[in-house]
Amino acid sequence: NAEEERRDEPDETDVEVEKRFFPIVAGVAGQVLKKIFCTISKKC
Questions:
Q1: How many CB atoms are located within 10 Å of the residue 10 CB?
Q2: Please, one GO biological process term (predicted)?
Q3: CA angle at residue 31 from 37 to 13, to 5 degrees?
Q4: How many Cα atoms occupy the beta-carbon half-sphere of 21 within 13 Å?
Q5: Over the Cα atoms of the chain, what is R_g?
Q6: What is the pLDDT along the chain (44 residues), one digit of tens a residue?
């Protein structure tokens, strides 16, 4: 049981980290895509 609990804890923390960082990564990716689209289409 102790080993199973240890296995569960890292999974939970990984999910929490993903929930925290995903919006930031998505926002940065969105800004980068806007800049790329802007330079390609030259519509700013």
A1: 9
A2: defense response to bacterium
A3: 140
A4: 6
A5: 19
A6: 566 666 666 667 888 888 999 999 999 999 999 999 999 998 76
Query: Model's pTM, two decimal places?
Result: 0.52
Q: Report residue 14: phi and psi, to 5°.
A: -60, -45
Residue 43: the pLDDT is 77
Domain boundaries, the chain: 1-44
> Among residues 24, 43, 23, 22, which one has the least CA distance to residue 35?
43
| In contact, 38 and 44? CB cutoff 8 Å | yes
